[in-house]
Amino acid sequence: MQTQSQNSQDCISSDRVEGTAVYGADGDKIGSVDCVMIEKRSGQAREAILDVGGFLGMGGSRHAVPWQKLEYDVDQGGYKLDVTEEQLKEAPSFQESDRERTLSDQTHRAAVYDYYATPVYW
Description:
alpha+beta
């Protein structure tokens, strides 16, 4: 049986995920988590929205990444993604001003999951 302390180490508050660094396959920082998209009905995290190349949330691009592509690395204190920054820049992206429209667009979502060769959850 897990204790309260052990169980809390398996979970993290969403506000602690936001702003966490994301490192690419080469170990270089490629962005940070802007937010986590959670499926309303199941409560499962589906995508992380990464902020790439901007400063204080301005001037960069946003990339939706399937949540299962991220792996937390305790030593780096951030998430690892199995692509380089250049590969991430080639992935489907959007501007903050188009966030709501883009994230609800099934064609964009399918393109994201296809790019990362990950099954789509609808």
